[in-house]
Design goal:
Length: 106
């Protein structure tokens, strides 16, 4: 049964320390999920990362550019960094970024 409170009486809320502690715990759980760890299995289509290939020791970093807002500045930086050596790749990334921006305006 809910406690009735008369007008003017102050119903005490949980102490602020409990709210802060709960918030810290939620952030800690979230932080454990968002760590640099193997979350995906990635293979090259050309199979160069398989035994005997020249990229057998490769490590990959996956970006979800649809749901992760931090991926956009990362892609912008990558497009700029690779421009001199890989201008076509750089332009493809920039075209993707333009497309994403256009879609977000709709």
């Amino acid at each position: 049964m809910a406690k009735r409170v008369a007008a003017g009486d102050l119903e005490s809320s949980p102490p602020r320390e409990e709210s802060i502690a709960a918030s810290r715990e939620r952030r800690a759980v979230e932080d454990k999920r968002n760590r640099l760890q193997q979350k995906y299995y990635v293979e090259r289509i050309d199979e160069r990362d398989r035994v005997g290939g020249d990229r057998v020791d490769s490590k990959y970093f996956v970006l979800d550019y649809i749901h992760d807002p931090y991926s956009i500045p990362a892609l912008e930086a990558y497009a700029q960094a690779c421009y001199r050596d890989f201008p076509n790749l750089s332009e493809e990334i920039r075209a993707l970024l333009r497309q994403l921006r256009d879609q977000s305006k709709r």
